[in-house]
Design a protein that fits this description.
about 30% strand, two-stranded antiparallel ribbon, alpha+beta, about 45% helix, 3-stranded antiparallel β-sheet, about 90 residues
């Protein structure tokens, strides 16, 4: 399922027009992104939790040349599925 399929599914299940559903989906994505960029987590009970993990700087190798290189520290978004989502999938 891609973003357009998700918008169509939201429109069908909620009775909204596709443009309203697109606005709703974009709004949810924007709210999650904004919250994660501030370092907060987004907890949706029964669905899952979006959070930010801090990755330390490390040393890796350039696969083309084999030379060592440093990989800088970064923040990575994480998602942990909740019990309701796990049960629905299994």
């Amino acid at each position: 399922m891609n973003k357009n399929d998700l918008i169509s599914a939201v429109a069908d299940s909620s009775g909204l027009s596709k443009s309203d559903a697109a606005s709703a989906v974009e709004g949810v994505f924007d709210a999650i992104t904004t919250s994660l960029s501030k370092g907060d987590e987004v907890r949706l009970v029964g669905f899952g939790t979006f959070s930010v993990a801090k990755r330390k700087a490390s040393t890796g190798r350039n696969p083309r040349t084999g030379e060592p290189m440093t990989i800088k520290a970064s923040n990575q978004p994480k998602f942990k599925a909740g019990k309701g989502l796990k049960d629905a999938v299994n």
